[in-house]
Structures are given as structure tokens and as C-alpha cells.
Amino acid sequence: xxxxxxxxxxxxxxxxxxxxxxxxxxxxxxxxxxxxxxxxxxxxxxxxxxxxxxxxxxxxxxxxxxxxxxxxxxxxxxxxxxxxxxxxxxxxxxxxxxxxxxxxxxxxxxxxxxxxxxxxxxxxxxxxxxxxxxxxxxxxxxxxxxxxxxxxxxxxxxxxxxxxxxxxxxxxxxxxxxxxxxxxxxxxxxxxxxxxxxxxxxxxxxxxxxxxxxxxxxxxxxxxxxxxxxxxxxxxxxxxxxxxxxxxxxxxxxxxxxxxxxxxxxxxxxxxxxxxxxxxxxxxxxxxxxxxxxxxxxxxxxxxxxxxxxxxxxxxxxxxxxxxxxxxxxxxxxxxxxxxxxxxxxxxxxxxxxxxxxxxxxxxxxxxxxxxxxxxxxxxxxxxxxxxxxxxxxxxxxxxx
Length: 401
Ligand SMILES: Nc1ncnc2c1ncn2[C@@H]1O[C@H](COP(=O)(O)OP(=O)(O)OP(=O)(O)O)[C@@H](O)[C@H]1O
Ligand SMILES: [Mg+2]
What we know:
It catalyses: ATP + protein L-histidine = ADP + protein N-phospho-L-histidine. The protein is α+β, with helices and mostly antiparallel strands. It has helices at residues 3-56, 60-71, 110-123, 144-211, 218-239, 251-263, 286-304, 357-368; strands spanning 77-81, 86-90, 127-131, 134-140, 247-250, 270-276, 280-284, 308-317, 322-329, 372-379, 383-395. It folds into three domains: 21-142; 148-238; 245-395, Heat Shock Protein 90 (2-Layer Sandwich), CATH 3.30.565.10. The protein has eight helices and eleven strands. The strands form two sheets. Strands 5, 6, 7, 8, 9, 10 and 11 form a seven-stranded mixed sheet that branches. The radius of gyration is 39 Å and the shape is rod-shaped. The structure holds adenosine-5'-triphosphate (ATP) and magnesium ion. Magnesium ion binds at residues 295, 298-299, 357.
């Protein structure tokens, strides 16, 4: 299994585990809430019964006892008569006045009690209560403890989620910088190790030319080309890691040079076409930019797998000051869901691919050329367009016709 699939599998496993924890916590709290709600209804019933005893009895000791029972109950409640008028309240805001509503000469905030009553009606069925032969209703709402318990799992889960998110961000950024270090170190070491044999090979070729008088020999010329190519590869590797110097170049010319170099090295079944504005300029590091174009062209060739065409077009947006480089092929296409995934290291659909080409390309465009690269368009079985966006430094007026 490649690392990309492995990472995806881990993600799903962790997500499933998080869902189990979250639903377990919600389930247990809702079980607690149900139990407490049941016990609060019993309390409200006991309160209603004690009220009835107080109001229906004239035995003093019994009254004291019943009042104590009544006052030990903490569930907020309102008693109404059969018509729905508020008679009494319990456990509500005492600053709004408390007991015996309405009573002559006593000021109270009727709206507050009415609102509370409406809220209680929405929460629980009322308890019927006979007081002095009259029917009354006891409405009640959850105690503050129960209300807090209801929201507790959401607060708890949000705090855990924020914590996990912070931990994940810290962990992945430290892992990324670790990976960067390995990657940069490896690239620089490779360039360093290649340097000495390449210089020797150059010197040997010069010697060979002299010794065998082979200045115009085709074989020697080919050998020289390959060594130069090796030099370019080593140069590319050495440039990874340290911010490369960007120089202003005509984008069309740079891309065309590489396309011309590339197209003679692939099958004749694939045709190449270059078009667009030849006057747009951008800050470019040629060895790295050639590498970018090479990766895109190689992928296009792999996607075509046989006969097809590759089109490279340079255009610009004057208002936004941007240069676009569009590489279009007539290959197998990329599913929409994979437009971002193709840039992840390790993602490949090729048997012998490493899935590194596009992640390297993105790094070179984003980090080293301050640009962007993305899949502009793709249709399965028809083809794909990758777009690179660079900042337009200025237009080359001298070469304008
Ligand atoms: N032009 C394209 N058309 C269709 N699919 C593409 C194209 N370019 C890239 N892909 C898809 O994106 C994947 C990743 O590309 P990337 O260049 O990163 O890796 P690779 O080509 O598979 O291997 P390598 O490391 O050798 O470049 C490819 O395997 C392919 O599935
Ligand atoms: Mg590739």
C-alpha cells in the first residue's frame, strides 16, 4: 500500500474512533439527563402534594414539616388556576417578587412570570393539583443543574475538538519542517556528490578531444551533451532548499526552449504546439522552471499513452498583472475529486511512479516562484489542462511588433 493510501486509511480510522467517542459521550449524558429529569418530575409532584397539604391543613406541626419539605425542592415551578392565571411561583428570580401572585399592593413583573410560564409549558406536561376544592396546575422547568448537564457534552466535545485541532496543527507543522530538512539535505548531498565526477568527466572529454583530435566527432558531442545534462540535474538539486535567485525572463522564450529540447526526445506519435503572447515577462529561475515544465510534459506524455497532442499556451491578465502558462494534453484525464490530491507527495496511479513530480512542481512554483499551479480543467478520456500563474513583472515592449 502506498503512503498516500495508508494516510487516508488512518484518517478514516481516527475519524471513526472520534465518532464512537463522541456518540458514546452523548449517549451517556442523555441517559443521565433522562434519569435526572424523571427525578425532577417526582420532586415537582412531591412539591405539589406538599402545597396541597399546607393549604388544606390546620395542624401546626404538620404544617411546619410540610413547609420544610416544600422549601427543600429546587425545581422552578409556577402554579396556575383552572383559567390559567398565575397563583404562585417557586424557585424563580426572587428579585421579581416571589410568592402569592397576584397579591394586593404588591408589585411584580408579570411579563417575567408569563414568559417563564410559556417556557415551562413547552418543557413538561403540567401536574394537576386540587387545592380547597379548586383545580390548579403546576408547571415546572428543568433545574439549572439539569440544564447545565444537557449542554455539558457539547461544551466538552468542543473543547476536546479545539485541543485536538491545535495538537494536530502543531504536530503536522513540526513533521513538515522535519520532512523539509530531510528532503533539502538529501537534495544538497546528491548535488554535492555528483559535482566531483561531473567535473572530472568534463575534463576527460576535453582531454579526449585533444588526444584523438575528435573536436567534431558525433559520439563525443553526444557524450558532452549528456554530461551537460547531468550538470543541469545536479544544479537543480543544489538549488532546492535555498531560496533561488529569480531573474526577469520572457516566459514564452524560456518555455519554448525547453519544449524544443523535450519534444525531440519523445515518441513521434505525440505532437507539440506552442502558442500565445511572446512579450510577457516574469521572475524565473531557469533550471528550476525547466524542471517544472519537464514534470508537466512528462506527466502529459504518460497520460496520453500512445497517440496525442500537447499544447502549451502563454497568456496574461493585464488587470491582475499575471502570466498564465497552460499545458494541455489529450490524455486520460483526472477525476474532479483528485484535482487537489494529485499534488500530494506519494499520490500516483502509475506502476513505476513515485508520485513526487507534481508535489515537487508545486513546491517550486509556490515557494520559489511565488506563483500558483492547479488543474484548470480536465475531462476523463479527453484530456487535462494544468495552469501555472506567475506575477507579470513587465511586458517586453522592445520585441513588440
Ligand atoms: N496530465 C495528466 N493527466 C492525467 N493524470 C495526471 C496528469 N498529471 C498527473 N496526473 C496524475 O497525477 C498523479 C501524480 O503525478 P506526479 O507527477 O506527482 O507523480 P507520477 O507521475 O505518478 O510519478 P513521478 O514521481 O515519477 O512523477 C499521476 O500518477 C497521475 O495519476
Ligand atoms: Mg510525474
